[in-house]
Amino acid sequence: MTRPWQKALPVKPEELIIPEVSLYMILKKTAERFQDRAAIIFEGKKITYPQLLNRVNKLADSFNRLGMKKGERIGLMLSNHPDYIVSYYAAQALGLIVVQINPMYTPRELFQIVDNSKLNHMVVERDSLDIVNQVQFMYPFNSLILAGEKTEEVDHNSSYLLADLIKNGSLTIRPADISVREDIAVIQYTGGTSGKIKGAMLTHYNLVANVIQSRLMYGNDMKDGKEMVLTATPLYHVYAMTSAMNLGIYIGSTILLFKKFEIQEVLESIQTYQPTFFPGVPRMYNAFVNHPNVDQYGLDCLKFCSSGSAPLPVEIIKKFESLTGAIIGEGFGLSETSPSTHRNPFLGVRKVGSIGIPLPGTDCKVVDDDNNELPTKSVGELIIKGPQVMKGYWNNEVETLQALQNGWLYTGDLAMMDDDGYFYIVGRKKEMIINGGFNIYPQEVEGVLYEHPYIKEAVVVGLPDLDKGEVVKAYVVVKEGYQLDLEELKGHCYRNLTRYKVPKLFEIRDSLPRNTVGKLLKRKLIEEEKAKNERVD
């Protein structure tokens, strides 16, 4: 079937070729092609592609000597650092399954992932070690590997120092035999309307396919061995994993890596190194355009920019593009799709406010509740088919069968398509909140609020925010006879949730709006907030 967007694609559907190779072989081939090229720049230090491959091979050999086996799960609970990239690709060489974990997670959040994935091994940085040790009382790992300096806190028999494993490993390894279409490379955890975590199983084929698809959307102006990727979005986030790390390595780019996004440090590094490619998130673009001296740091070096994880306000797009001359390619993706499914083409028509067209090899439809495909300019659920779509949810057949039906992924997002095949997200069937590029699931936050002894009822919604995309607001009803201290309630949330999940706004109410059958009406709360803002304006 011919789709309206196909005329805007850089290749015809029949011309799309996805190599059936593992992620490790992508790195190996690049290291052979670009032997003098810097693979990573981190805190002023350069690592060439051959040096990176050597570290990966040594670590893979040490992993093998520790008895790590293909199919076992290894958690990476690390901030942006060369150790993350080395650990990721060493695991892929052996056919281990990488479980990407936010190093800011609380013990409660970490245990959910550990228990669901039945994690075998963990690589952790010092700052997160206390959290990991608390979880180990309930769920001991086969091996615990510490990145960074040695510490007395790691003293049990199955603990190792990552630096020692890299130093003492052999350069000669035998990579695992990988069935690229079947073998899982990454379990990327996400949530859903139930609030329960789900692990999207992404195969080597899924991830390599999404790299190829993304590369094609940038056209021939993106040169192998010539680009530098400004990488400030966390690598444990599926967007940075593909758009910065895996794509960057595939094209032989230099990954200019930052532990975290600090605007002044990033601007000074842009001035020094002149990166050409920036896969960012809205809060980063917002920080750039609001910096008082941004025009002094040479941001016109950027040729390719993309924005993911949350909608990017039009006014920020216009300001950033006037500063740099670079075009921001708005797009769309999901953890379940490796993640990219749509992008405004780098060459060709761009429609600001649209998520663009489906990537090469991707088919999409907008359907009604009876699965009937809707005509253009009609709102319905966006469903997606393509080589980047996950294998399913880890150890969760029920959710898999709901999400994947007849080869289509049901996103839960409400969308419409225009006559040219460009898509627009207009809402979410799911109630997920996106804050600064991170997904927040209201039921999880509500669950923590309900754990407070003074709370009778609680509901959480996302409200529009120029900087973060959305902020979390909690509405609570206090039990009769109790006085609630909101600062104490906020402290309760901080003890049980990662910082970005903690509500920024709280409101105490006598009651919450419900319909005649008692269902909470979150939409009414959002409408009230909108009406209040309109009165203020």
From TrEMBL:
One of its GO terms (molecular function) is acid-thiol ligase activity. Residues 28-394 form the AMP-dependent synthetase/ligase domain. Pfam families: AMP-binding, AMP-binding_C. Keywords: Ligase. The keyword Ligase applies. Residues 444-519 form the AMP-binding enzyme C-terminal domain. PROSITE patterns: AMP_BINDING. InterPro entries: AMP-bd_C (IPR025110), AMP-bd_C_sf (IPR045851), AMP-binding_CS (IPR020845), AMP-dep_synth/lig_dom (IPR000873), ATP-dep_AMP-bd_enzyme (IPR050237). This is Long-chain-fatty-acid-CoA ligase. It comes from Halalkalibacter wakoensis JCM 9140.
